[in-house]
């Protein structure tokens, strides 16, 4: 099998080449550029393409891939909201993903964001480097004894819930499909979780039903001085409403590894650009907000798991043993 790998970073290449030692019959060509309508034509002569959660896999791009006889898209991520699944099905293109690679990696980053924004670590780091040892503006809250609200208790949500429990927090959660094995979690309706949580962490996939789940109405339900963390999908949060809430002093802190405008920013160095009308710039103007670069997944263990599962998906497809559990249709 020949795979064309789009938007390849140095760490991607190193990880996949290490895993490919066990799959010598798989050939991979790595491209710096990401996929779009124009670059999709480069897939001619390949059996599959490999893309990421920020890649453009809209109907127009899929149609170009189909013209190049591509029948398999390998997503090296869990998310697939950037893929037009209906068009993929119409074109006979199978989409495979990595549903679970290292939920602990994402959950640990979520808690790192929560702790950092709570205790203003990002501000103190800069102050101390300038020999400013004042505690002004650094007041935090104890998480111990407080209530953590988890929205979505899949593998990542479960890992985050366990971390919160370890901090001595009372853990409540909302999920359409509660997990009975999590006997330390108290499941409640969404509105109750929003009202009662001191720390609110989002761990659900993006669907048409929960687009802008966090908006002016749901923000108004939250406690004053709540800590909000999002490591799932940027579109779960209405950014304009979030900014209005921050300006109204609703939040003690906000930690975002994902946000609505991130597509052009993900993994790119834009330090020489002026983004004066950017959502990112607006968010970064607030002292109680931390934004990271879609890095929650980024651990050695997670990259190894992503590489291993992605190439295993390719082999399973080639051997005709893909079942409905792995297929994103």
Offer a concise description of the structure.
With 329 residues, this protein is α/β, with parallel strands linked by helices.
Q: What number of domains?
A: 2
**CATH overall fold name of the largest domain:** Rossmann fold
Distance separating the two termini = 22 Å
Architecture of the largest domain in CATH?
A: 3-Layer(aba) Sandwich
Which percent band covers the strand fraction? 5-15%
Q: Helix content range of the residues, please?
A: 25-40%
- Number of DSSP-assigned strands: 12
How large is the count of helical segments? 11
Mean pLDDT: 92
Biggest β-sheet description: 7 strands, parallel
Can you write the helix and strand succession as a string? EHEEHEHEHHEHEEHEHEHEHEH
* Shape, principal axes of CA atoms: globular
CATH superfamily of the largest domain: NAD(P)-binding Rossmann-like Domain
Question: Over all CA atoms, what is the radius of gyration?
Answer: 21 Å
Walk across the major sheet and give the strand order.
Answer: 8-7-6-9-10-11-12
Secondary-structure-based class equals: alpha/beta
């Amino acid at each position: 099998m020949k795979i064309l790998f789009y938007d390849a970073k140095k760490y991607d290449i190193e990880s996949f080449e290490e895993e490919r030692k066990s799959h010598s019959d798989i050939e991979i060509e790595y491209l710096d550029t990401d996929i779009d309508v124009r670059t999709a034509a480069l897939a001619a002569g390949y059996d599959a393409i490999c893309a990421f959660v920020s890649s453009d896999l809209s109907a127009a791009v899929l149609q170009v891939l189909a013209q190049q006889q591509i029948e398999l898209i390998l997503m090296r991520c869990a998310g697939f909201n950037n893929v037009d699944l209906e068009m993929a099905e119409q074109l006979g293109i199978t989409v495979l993903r990595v549903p679970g690679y290292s939920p602990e990696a994402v959950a640990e980053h979520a808690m790192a964001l929560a702790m950092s924004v709570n205790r203003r670590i990002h501000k103190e780091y800069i102050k101390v480097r300038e020999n400013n040892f004042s505690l002004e503006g650094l007041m935090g809250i104890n998480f111990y004894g407080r209530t953590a609200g988890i929205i979505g208790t899949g593998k990542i949500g479960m890992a985050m819930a366990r971390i919160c429990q370890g901090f001595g927090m009372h853990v409540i959660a909302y999920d359409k499909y509660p997990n009975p094995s999590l006997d330390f979690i108290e499941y409640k309706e969404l509105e109750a979780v929003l009202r009662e949580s001191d720390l609110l962490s989002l761990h659900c996939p993006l669907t048409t039903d929960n687009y802008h789940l966090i908006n002016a109405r749901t923000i108004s339900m939250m406690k004053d001085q709540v800590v909000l963390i999002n490591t799932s999908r940027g579109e779960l949060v209405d950014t304009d409403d979030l900014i209005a809430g921050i300006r109204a002093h609703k939040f003690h802190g906000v930690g975002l590894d994902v946000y609505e405008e991130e597509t052009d920013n993900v993994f790119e160095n834009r330090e020489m650009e002026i983004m004066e009308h950017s959502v990112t710039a607006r968010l970064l103007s607030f002292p109680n907000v931390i934004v990271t670069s879609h890095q929650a997944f980024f651990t050695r263990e997670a990259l190894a798991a992503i590489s291993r599962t992605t190439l295993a998906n390719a082999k399973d497809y080639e051997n005709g043993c893909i079942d409905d559990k792995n297929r994103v249709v």
